[in-house]
Specification:
12% helix, Transducin/WD40 repeat-like superfamily protein, RBBP5/Swd1, WD40_repeat_CS, 5 helices, Methylamine Dehydrogenase, Chain H, mainly beta, 508 residues, 4-stranded antiparallel beta sheet
Amino acid sequence: MNASIIDPLQGDFPEVIEEYLEHGVMKCIAFNRRGTLLAAGCSDGNCVIWDFETRGIAKELRDKDCVAAITSVCWSKYGHRILVSAADKSLTLWDVVSGEKITRTILQQTPLQARLHPGSSTPSLCLACPLSSAPIIVDLNAGSTTVLPVSIPDVNPGLAPSSRNKISDGTPFSPTAACFNKYGDLVYAGNSKGEILLIDYKSVQVRAMVPVSGGSVIKNIVFSRNGQYLLTNSNDRTIRIYENLLPSKDGLKALGDLNVTQDGIDDSVEKLKAVGSKCLTLFREFQDAITKMHWKAPCFSGDGEWVIGGSASKGEHKIYIWDRAGHLVKILEGPKEALIDLVWHPVHPIVVSVSLTGLVYIWAKDYTENWSAFAPDFKELEENEEYVEREDEFDLIPETEKVKESDVNEDDEVDIVTVEKDSAFSDSDMSQEELCFLPAIPYPDVPEQQDKCIESSSKLVDSNNSGSPISEEGRPNGRANNHASSPLEEDAGATRLRSLQQQQNDHN
């Protein structure tokens, strides 16, 4: 619906399930940058791309090399590529338009999440968070990997992660959450000690550290669309919002300047904390004070004004919506199915969730029409009133309009080519051709007359008991699948032709 006729007092967040999408068993979802296409990874290793405007399947990326479940999907900045991570330890980069694989890389651990570098239109670098090892930077072209630090080393920040995060005493490794900042020059990682590390992935060094209150394992870390806010989800059942104090562009350079100003501090840990305090500041905390539930797949709305989190409890499909001030404004209750993934539409007040059964639910707003938005002088009547129209009210050209002089210059050319820049996508490079929709591929229909001929010939062969009927496997739905005749069929046809000629000769 047109945003200009929406009543602002109704709240700009979804309320009810509008419809659901069904195709196999879907596990994870991701919108492209404009929200026109929705990619869904399935349990059979395939990736489905839905046209979100028509709710139809625009393309299906079938991978013969992968039969394991998809763990995450990620679009490139302009939508021409999709990165898919799977449970068979693979990372696959797809070309969306052609539907062909660009590269395929096998890691040593199963990647739970993989994100393409956001600063490039054709990225070859990605950030992967494996199941039981530290986050890694993967060069998809070269197949090389760089392990990132997940704790502050005692001597050199460039060393490998400390033994505290390794599988040394038989206990499982706590997965580390990580994400790029808006332009991809820094990696923000949340570790098992409740610390947010700002990492320069090119030099593999920790440049700043922000301790999270409670010191619990950080399970999710997500940036808002504009890069102004950072969200963390910890094991202490609390979602925290941090305000990003670094500039959106050249964040690494600003971070280097901050390190220089703190050179007077001898202790490296205290220095990193001092720098971190100038990078992130705690803005809000969200939690359910009554049930103390764990949260699943929290994220921001497209404009960053709302925060959502799914209940991690089994057997319930609940979505909590807060405003950025910290007030709980809505609880969406779905079917009795566990929620496994959640995403907010980049532009519209629409939330899409994935259930454990593999269905994708689309939550939208239940709009109430406000007719005064169409005409400011519109007045709702409680009861009928008699109205006397003017004499020229229904004339094609009323007398009142004849008096008015038109101030429109009819000789001016109307520009229908220039695309106005959308404020919601202020960082768009308009010179880059962005992929918003996929062309539909029509399948040619078999002509009806040809169908009848095929059916009649099939019946003739069956009734003639010539010893070579067309097998049922070659005739799905009662139609011949292969128009090429077998040798036996040709012999049977020739026999029938000779017998018909003999009958005609006898008759003559």
